[in-house]
Amino acid sequence: MIRLRPIQTEQTFSIIPSSFEAADLDLCSITLTENGTSKSESNVTFTWEVSSNGNYIEVSMTPTITFKEDQIYAFEMATSTNVFYRDLIYITSKTNKKEIFSFPERYTERNDGNDEYIVL
Predict the structure, then answer these.
(1) What is the pLDDT of residues 65-89, one digit of tens each?
(2) In sequence order, what DSSP letters do the residues of 16-80 get, joined into one string?
(3) What residues make up the domain containing 28?
(4) Domains held by the chain: number
């Protein structure tokens, strides 16, 4: 999961895509999809460069949507035919990297006495 801040200026993060070829990455576009509402943005302005040690790609991205605190976005870097990277982006203003993120506890156990399962 990628952690970004709830700001509208450029942010940089590192990824390991399935291709490091400039010809592939130059044709890519980034799509952000908000979790829960499925609102999507596909015209994200970004640049990329290979890291100094060559092990990953540094992506600098400036979204046009407003990042909301504690929101999760699906991130996809792809061309019209190939997907090179997918991940989730968690928006938080917290800077303590040792703090662990966990999804809210919304699970409600239902036990109606019927423990039948269908196996396909």
Answers:
(1) 888 888 999 999 999 899 999 999 9
(2) --S---HHHHHT-EEEEEETTT--EE---EEEEEE-TTSSSEEEEEE-SSPP-TT-EEEEEEE-S
(3) 2-91
(4) 1
